[in-house]
Amino acid sequence: MDMGVKLSSKDVAKHLGIEPVTVRKYASMLEEQGYSFNKDSKGCRLYTEDDVKTLEYLCTMTKINGHS
Fold first, then answer.
1. Domain boundaries, the chain
2. Is there a contact between 3 and 46 (Cβ–Cβ < 8 Å)?
3. The domain at 9-64 falls in which architecture?
4. Strand (E) positions, 1-68?
């Protein structure tokens, strides 16, 4: 993945093998803890490679701990 590329929730979900609603849920949880995402002019999140890695880590930890 190119660092300059910004992905939608749908693209990230496809990459991680989860539903877009789950990506948005995890992103909201991260934002509540102070994490910030790039957003387009409509306010939709645009995910970078680092964001995807963070979400991937969160997915892994969620599966290990048996949560959704």
1. 9-64
2. no
3. Orthogonal Bundle (1.10)
4. 38-39, 45-46
